[in-house]
Amino acid sequence: MTPTRDWVAGLKSPPVGSLTCGGNQWFDLRGVTDSGLQSRWLGGLDSEVVYSKIPTSVAKIFDKAIDKGCCH
Asked: Domain total for the chain?
């Protein structure tokens, strides 16, 4: 699984990270548009978690839920 072209479009060079979730290694990509909208794509073996081009205040809510979930 990979991010779609629409997800990548307009993002400044998203940094690539990794994390462990459910015992599996996941890729963690984050990006921001020129207008400050946030995107994040988490991809694992056969799953993904995605949000795209949302306000920072909303992204923080999603990040908190992800960070408090199984991923670390």
From this structure: 1
pLDDT digits (tens, 9 = 90+) for 4-24: 888 888 888 777 888 887 788
Query: Would you state the pLDDT for residue 72?
Result: 57
| Helix boundaries (H) for the chain | 5-8, 56-68
Domain span including residue 59: 12-68
pLDDT of residue 55: 97
φ and ψ of 49, to 5 deg: -130, 130
Residue with tokens 């992204």: 59
In a domain, 20, yes or no: yes
